[in-house]
Write a structure and sequence with these properties.
The protein is mainly α and about 240 residues long. The protein is built from five helices and no strands. The chain has helices spanning about 5-30, 40-65, 75-100, 105-115, 135-230. Keywords: Coiled coil, Membrane, Phosphoprotein, Transmembrane, Transmembrane helix, Transport, Ubl conjugation.
Length: about 240
């Protein structure tokens, strides 16, 4: 069985995210040691762009798969959760890349464990978006659930529109078939009428020709009778 393209691309995206985390650690180590990190920054930017493009493609593939019912709603929800986690990871990596590496120990811990060290908040959270700034874990989770519900509602609406368009297409196809049948019947009727008309025209011509021949024969017979009468009529 061939691997699912979406899952394969998701695995590839996770691998790229891991590469970015490792490159960021290496860059921060170079900065602490006073080494040149320009090449690493270029590599990280390229990987971040690649990750963003893959995530955008994953979004498109997931939307198409759900709208065309290639996957179940349950599988669609599972993949959406995976995609949301990957988006969060991308934002964290982007924020970490922008960090100048002045907190190397804390950054290393966050990159490797994603957690908190010695009661200090994960530095990535300091770079979070305005939508989640100041929210607790439960509030963020509720926000994500609302977003997922809105996306589900949008997908359901899209599915309904596609279903109606499909039904309209089927109705139009059925109507065209009926119209084609009517046109075929009319064509056959016209053809039969033309054949009958041609046959009647030939018949009329034959009758007319016979009538003309009979009329001429009557005239000739009458002339012959007249001549005979004159010939035998006594003269005085």
């Amino acid at each position: 069985m061939a691997p699912d393209p979406w899952l394969s691309m998701y695995d590839s995206s996770c691998h790229i995210a891991q590469q970015i985390a490792e490159k960021i650690q290496e860059r921060n180590r170079c900065q602490r040691n006073g080494e040149n990190s320009i090449k690493l920054n270029v590599t990280i930017r390229s990987l971040l762009q690649n990750l963003k493009e893959k995530i955008d493609h994953l979004k498109d593939l997931l939307l198409r798969a759900i709208s065309t019912r290639q996957i179940t709603q349950l599988e669609g929800d599972r993949r959406q959760n995976l995609l949301d986690d990957l988006l969060t990871r991308q934002r964290q990596l982007q924020a970490s890349y922008k960090n100048d590496g002045t907190e190397p120990d804390l950054m290393r811990s966050s990159l490797m464990t994603g957690g908190v060290k010695r009661g200090v908040m994960n530095p990535w959270i300091l770079e979070e978006t305005e939508e989640t700034r100041g929210l607790g874990f439960d509030e963020i989770r509720q926000q994500q659930q609302r977003i997922i519900q809105e996306q589900d509602a949008g997908l359901s609406a899209l599915s309904s529109v596609l279903s109606r368009q499909k039904q309209m297409g089927q109705d139009i196809g059925n109507e065209l078939e009926e119209q084609n049948e009517i046109i075929d019947d009319l064509t056959n009727l016209v053809a039969n009428t033309d054949d009958k008309l041609l046959s009647q025209t030939r018949h009329v011509k034959m009758v007319d020709k016979k009538s003309s021949s009979c009329g001429m024969l009557v005239v000739i017979v009458l002339l012959l009778i007249a001549i005979a009468v004159v010939a035998v009529w006594p003269t005085h």
